[in-house]
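sry for the spam today, last one i promise. struct tokens for design, 418 residues
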């Protein structure tokens, strides 16, 4: 079939399909689980820390051997209960609890097997998470006249977000359905950049004044996005006048379709920023490794998430000039890293409310948001003809704003843009 196609279309290129995943840390933890050898049950009860009432919908992940990935997982029911088959182990090596919307998670080490009760802390939207520590809440004009494209699971609807168009580039789906596919990842990413709410009922992103556009590349119920959907979304975003394009995804093999789209976007005056990946200090994943992307790793800061929360599992050296700052344990690092951004315990928008998430997926839009804030203050650059010179100047503005945080270059690149 390939040969016949090339005879009929000699000017076309045949490119294999490559699948990319979302780079949220919770997914990497859940993916480690292998079933325990026997079926002795442990009951975990998840409750509201303040009221003691049961919490439904919390994801509980228990490892009896974290290194080997041995353990079990489940979701709390209406009574807050999760029953786990943990084999014959006497202790839980690591216990992760990811709260539902409105709650922080929890993390414990070396917990005796049996009946375990975990209290989750409700979210206070005025809490100073790592994004607000480093960047504060954006003013209404921050990001004004800048257009940001979010290539992800779709965005919204959410009362804190205004979406100014977009496209669904998933083959076989409605092109006008660019709302969140239910995963909520894209809505969270968008809120970090552009949320315009205010506590106690809403939250504010880094650049609320941007024109926000949504490009959905993950299908309904899909765990992967194809390189063709991603390349098409990047092309559409650049053609639609996006100045900054956020890719909080990765993990697939380097492929010419995505690489060409990123290169073309730069030639159309737009800059693509991509998350480095959440594979526990593995090399930077593609597309962040592409030289035409700005690759963003994740840092965290002690004290910007509650004590005992799941984010404590992400603390790992090296530490920065300020010993409260650290490069997240999950963050991929290496030579392609250009910048680092806050990505541990980030509060943002999700369908039906607000929640914390961690990952280079969160660090990337934090940097996209500060890039929009910086660009909005340079109308002469915004007004440049849309070509390579324009995108190069945008990239220069963002990279030159970076401040070294005291990490090795392979961890932070040029540092944290301020």
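last one done:
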């Amino acid at each position: 079939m390939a040969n016949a196609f090339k005879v009929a279309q000699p000017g076309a290129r045949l490119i294999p399909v490559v699948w990319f995943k979302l780079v949220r840390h919770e997914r990497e933890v859940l993916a480690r689980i292998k079933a325990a050898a026997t079926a002795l049950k442990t009951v975990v009860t998840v409750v509201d820390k303040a009221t003691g009432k049961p919490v439904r919908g919390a994801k509980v992940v228990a490892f009896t051997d974290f290194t080997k990935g041995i353990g079990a997982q489940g979701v709390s029911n209406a009574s807050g209960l999760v029953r786990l088959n943990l084999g014959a182990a006497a202790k839980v090596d690591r216990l992760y609890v990811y709260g539902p919307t409105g709650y922080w998670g929890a993390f414990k080490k070396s917990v005796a097997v049996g009946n375990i009760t975990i209290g989750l802390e409700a979210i206070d939207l005025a809490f100073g998470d790592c994004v607000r520590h480093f960047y504060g809440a954006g003013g209404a004009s921050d990001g004004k006249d800048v257009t940001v494209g979010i290539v992800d699971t779709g965005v919204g609807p959410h009362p804190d977000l205004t979406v100014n168009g977009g496209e669904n580039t998933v083959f076989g789906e409605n092109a006008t359905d660019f709302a969140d596919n239910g995963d909520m990842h894209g809505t969270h990413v968008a809120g970090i950049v552009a949320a315009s709410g205010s506590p106690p009922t809403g939250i504010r992103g880094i650049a609320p004044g941007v024109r926000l556009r949504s490009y959905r590349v993950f299908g309904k119920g899909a765990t992967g996005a194809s390189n063709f959907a991603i390349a098409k979304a990047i092309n559409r975003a650049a053609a639609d006048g996006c100045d900054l394009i956020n890719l909080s995804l990765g993990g697939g093999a380097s492929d010419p379709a995505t690489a060409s789209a990123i290169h073309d976007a730069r030639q159309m005056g737009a800059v693509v920023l991509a998350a480095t990946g959440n594979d526990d200090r593995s090399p930077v994943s593609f597309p962040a490794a592409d030289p035409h992307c700005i690759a963003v790793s994740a840092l965290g800061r002690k004290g910007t998430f509650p004590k005992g929360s799941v984010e404590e599992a992400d603390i790992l050296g090296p530490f920065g000039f300020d010993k409260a700052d650290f490069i997240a344990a999950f963050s991929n690092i290496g030579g392609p890293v250009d910048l680092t951004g806050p990505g541990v315990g980030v509060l943002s928008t999700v369908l039906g409310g607000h929640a914390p998430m961690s990952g280079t997926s969160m660090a990337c839009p934090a940097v996209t948001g500060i890039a929009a804030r910086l660009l909005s203050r340079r109308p002469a650059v915004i007004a440049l003809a849309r070509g390579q010179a324009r995108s190069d100047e945008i990239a220069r503005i963002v990279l030159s704003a970076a401040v070294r945080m005291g990490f090795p270059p392979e961890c932070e690149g040029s540092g944290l843009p301020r």
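The domain at 25-120 is CATH 2.60.40.10 (Immunoglobulin-like). ok im logging off now
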